[in-house]
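Regression check, nicotinamide-adenine-dinucleotide case 466:
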Amino acid sequence: MKYDIIVIGSGPGGYIAAIRASQLGKKVAIIEKYATLGGTCLNVGCIPSKALLDSSHHYYDAVHHFEEHGISVEKPTFDFGKMVERKANVVETTTGGIKYLMDKNNITVYEGLGSFEDATHVKVTKKDGSSEVIEGADIIIATGSKPSTLPFITLDKERVITSTEALKLKEVPKHLLVIGGGVIGLELGSVYKRLGADVTVIEYAPKITPTMDADVSKELTKVLKKQGMKINASHGVTSVERNGDEVIVKATNKKGEEVTFTGDYCLVAVGRKPYTEGLGLEKAGVKVTERGMVDVNDHLQTNIKNIYAIGDVVKGAMLAHKAEEEGVVVAEYLAGEKPHIDYNLIPGIIYTWPEVAAVGKTEQELKDAGVAYKAGKFSMRALGRSRASGDLDGFVKVLADKNTDEILGVHMVGARVADLIMEAAVAMEYRASAEDLARICHGHPTYSEAVKEAAKAAWDGKPLNA
Ligand SMILES: NC(=O)c1ccc[n+]([C@@H]2O[C@H](COP(=O)([O-])OP(=O)(O)OC[C@H]3O[C@@H](n4cnc5c(N)ncnc54)[C@H](O)[C@@H]3O)[C@@H](O)[C@H]2O)c1
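Current build output:
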């Protein structure tokens, strides 16, 4: 069969690219090696982790917060098996939705491993070993990423696990050791902490979420510690050993001392790496970088003219929504349009509770770039909405250009900031000033008032409710 565009990989990057290309009149095929569509995000990433985060949040609230609202329930209990089953149902419905979208958009789905025969032909090898070759005028690589590990770790996938296994454990760990205080470590660490596990995070950098704004890391560390999570920053892991049902992690702390952590499970969450195994890039002549990423130019085009790559397999943040934008951009570019992505405006979100969200530059990035800026900060605690719900932790911080007042970055910790961050992204897309944001009437009482107040603090240094 011959197509205008073949997309390899059906994660958020791939399936969105396929839909957009089809909307623009292209004949499109998508190849997926797994039986369900949706890639890491829908099957073993964003969606299942949010399902477990939501279930564990309900339980945590019942145990810790119902009483202050005057609600008494006899000692709440949970059925972990049911939580995991619910998560599986959420995944099934969501991935089923992608199949529906493929059919609706007349996109041909091939189940099997896609590998290049040459620059225009891709072989699809099915589970039963049979294969067929399809032809594409243009090809989009959207094969995503897989969990990284450390060279001395043996991932037995039973007790020394990655996020994939952490989403389908048969029991709640007694003591979960988490290597890596990044997004996955803190989100999945939160799930099990809320369900009663001891959780110890071991982070190499001097702080958790090391690439986020320093104030955010500090506040998040404070609230997670308050929830009982043990956080060990500046600890370089040197060994991970399994001994029966125990896992022993050794690390070197800042003083050069060896520290031993013992738990019953160890989650390795030290980042992800691009996934190109078995793709046959060499047969098509596609170049990869030293770090194994597919090398692309500003149009996400590889060194081979008709082959493009998007999402986790190329440079940039490994985020579903970044991949989606790239999918749209490549599809539109191939249809002769002139699309554009502002990589500065891709929000970063962590679904702990309180949530964390950011867009634009951090203070450190502005300092490093020598940009004169002003900062306005407003505590969630000062909001009527936060007092009503009892979610008092966190803040909103707005960074604006000292001379022009243009908003350069917004950083948030607090209830529902995962959704709130989009106000900041919209403002920055339209190059709003802090004053613009401060002058917009915000509904009362809402968490969004913290954005208005922080913007006012950045603009004239005079928040109204602080
Ligand atoms: N909410 C979301 O958007 C979401 C959720 C999950 C995953 N993701 C994405 O998936 C990717 C992978 O997530 P992740 O949490 O594995 O990566 P990450 O990059 O967010 O965090 C990895 C952490 O591990 C630390 N680390 C690295 N080597 C270490 C070592 N030897 N010892 C101890 N710590 C070490 C790093 O300093 C970092 O803090 C990221 O790009 C992330 O953004 C996003």
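Comparison notes: The two ends are 66 Å apart (CA to CA). Residues 138 and 305 are 9 Å apart (CA to CA). No diff flagged against the previous build.
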